[in-house]
Every structure is written in structure tokens, then in C-alpha cells.
Specification:
456 residues, alpha/beta, binds zinc ion, Diaminopimelate Epimerase, Chain A, domain 1, 24 strands, Urease, subunit C, domain 1, 16 helices
Length: 456
Amino acid sequence: MNDVLTVRDAEVDGVRVDVTLADGVVRRIVSAGSERPLSDAVLEAHGGALLPGLHDHHVHLLAMAAAIDSVPVGPGDVQDAAGFGAALRSAAVGAASDEWIRAVGYHESVAGELDRYALDAVVPGTPLRVQHRSGALWVLNSAALAAVGADPGHDGRFLRADEWLRGRMPSRRLDLAAVGRRLVSCGITGVTDLTPTSDASEVALLAAAVASGELQIGVTITGSADLPAAASPELRRGPVKVVVGDHALPSLDDLLARFRAARSLGRAVAVHCVTREALVLALVAWHEVGSAPGDRIEHGAVVPPEVFAELAALGLTVVTQPSFVRERGDQYLTDVDVADRPHLWRCRSLVQAGIGVAFGSDAPYGSIDPWAMQRTAIDRRTVAGSVLGAGESLAAGDALTRMLGAAEAPTVPRSIVVGVRADMCLLDRPLAEMLAAPDVGAVAATLVGGTEVYRR
Ligand SMILES: [Zn+2]
């Protein structure tokens, strides 16, 4: 009985128990120490809480892999223009002239609007590309512009031009195994990848990483409506991702066509809505096409109360990113319209209005740490310590449940009972202690399908 494991003396739902896992599922739960273990293999929990593995409901796995060997230049990484320059110059030291430097997470509050000349002043000779933290903008220096064969007069700013750039920049080895290791070290056993890709080769990379065990977690993908159904069908499909741009809204006809394409595939939609205008347009489309189980709003950064009843009636789930309150809140407090500020990154008011709410990190654009995300959902504090939307704070236990749903039912928390799949996260302390101060350092072990994939 090699595949049998007993987690001894774990706290499950407030009770100390021994939990036997076999063939990938929970086989037996008995009072701690009351019966002989069914296996020699034992994981000692010492009273620590055993939870269902967390699910991150919104990530971008390939971008996470790309970000791992990139220079972080966001407001939390570098202080100002001097820090920005120093980070990039040190990355350029010793780089071959055809070796690219990739920087990510940039925001104007660090060193203003960037263009090719601003980057040339920092790194003149080595190809350099800097990604805005929205993920939508790349800025290239002159060496990089020459390497991609851009028009000589180009200012270096490429907005939503990933497809064009991709074929022209050197391909990089993506270390999905490193992404997987980081996820399981946080107690995460499943993710939903919301990348709106139509590229079968990108999806094949993920499928291969899952098949080889590089990614040990459960992976559900969305893709765009144009992703061929035959592209890696072994990867679970969630809703179809539909992007309603933050600044350039699609036409209603275009949006309706994408909703209907999803429906013709028998799938729900996950609609990127950051601004108030995007949300209103998406709601018009929902009224026209009708909602379906599994339909979601991604981000929901601005949800005015006038639409609460409508969202609830349509049965939509909002997949939000509380960590942006911490990581970006200080900029929101200076940049965002005063009229929109009370509506930013709502949580509690949505829950109280009967709207389903689940959490996703949006990694790599947000931090991957699900426990830091829960802390922020509770305290609503920015990096500088200001509080954004105090009334939107959730109780600790409630914040946790937003990450306990499965991909297909984000708002239904899983629990540890006989017969469920043994995807779990073991803490080194009782749950009450963890909820009082959520800390990723308290994750002692992570199990996927009954197999230990992480031990602290
Ligand atoms: Zn995203």
C-alpha cells in the first residue's frame, strides 16, 4: 500500500483527527490516535490545520514563468528613477550585446512615462524591454527596436502589441517547474489561467508541463473564443475569456459575437471588466445573450452599487484581486477619479448584495502569495499604510473561503470529508491562529492527489 498516507493529528473543522489518503482521495477520518494508521507513511501534523488546497482563480502561468527571470521595477521594487536605473544597469552588467534584458511591473510613479530615449539614457547598448504592470504596454530601447526591425522613427512604446512583438523577440526558455514550485509552497493546489490566448502552441506548453509533472497542480484554462477546441483538449476548459478593454471599448456587436461564440461552445464567459464603462457595456451584452452558470466578471475594479442587483440577478461571480489594494492602492489614492474611489475593489458590499465573490492573484501582475492577499482583504491596507475602502473588509474566515472553491465552482468552498480528492494544504498551526495573522510561512506541506508535493 505504497500510495497510502496518514496525516496524523491534524485539525480539521476544529477537531483533531487522523486522515488517511489512498488512491488520491480521502479514505478515512478518525479521532486523532483512536485507531492504528493504515500505512507506514505518516505525515505528522502536530495539531496544525489541514485545509483543502487553495485555488487561485485568476493567473497567467506563462507570464509567471517569463517574470521569474525578469528584473522587477514596480513601485514596490524600486523607489524612484535612480533605483530604476540602478536595477537595470546592474542587470546589464556582463550581458552579451544580443542578450535581452526584460523588466516587469513598471508604473509611471517610478520614473514617469517611458519611451525609447528614456531607456537609452539608462541602458544604451543592450536590448531592453520594460513591461508596464498592466501587462498591456511594452517599451523598448533603441537597441531592442533595431533588433525587432521596428520603424526607425518609432518611439519605443508598444500598446497591446504582444502578437507582433512575440515573433520578433528572442524566445526564452520558460521555467514552468519553478512556477509550480512557488505555487505549491503557498499551499495552492489548483489554478485557473485566464490568458485570452488563441494560440494552440501556448496551450501545448502548459499541457506538456502538466503531463510531465513540472506543474503538479490542477490547471484549468480559459483561452479566447478563437482557441481551437482541438488545442490540448486534455487541459480542463473553464469559461471563455472575453476582454473588454479598459480604455478602448469594443463595439457591442463585437462583444455579442464573442459571448455567442462562447455559448456555441457550451461554455461560460469570464469578462475582463476594470472600468465602470466596461462593466456597463458587458451588462448590456449579458442582457442580450442571457447569463449562464459559471459566468464571471474578472477584476470588477469599479462596481457601482446601482448594478449590484443586476449582477446578483444574473448570477455572476466577481473574481477580484484584494492584493491590488495593497500593491496599487497608494497610486489609486492619487490617480483614480474621486467619484470612483468608493467603488474600488469591493468585497464585502458585493457579498452582502448576494453576489458571488472569489479571489485570484492575477499573477504575475499581482503577487502570488494567497495569504498576503487574504491579509489585505481583511485590513484593506496599502503599502504606505493607508486604508482603502474600510467598509469592504472581510472577516478572516470569509476571506479564506474565497480561495477554497474549485475551478468549476469558485464560490463553493471545498471541505475535507471522506471521498474528496486529496488536494490539501497543511499548516504548522491551528486555523484560528492562522486567521489571526495569515502568513505564507505557516504552510508546512502541500499534497496533490494524496502525494506530497511540498514540505517546508
Ligand atoms: Zn489577468
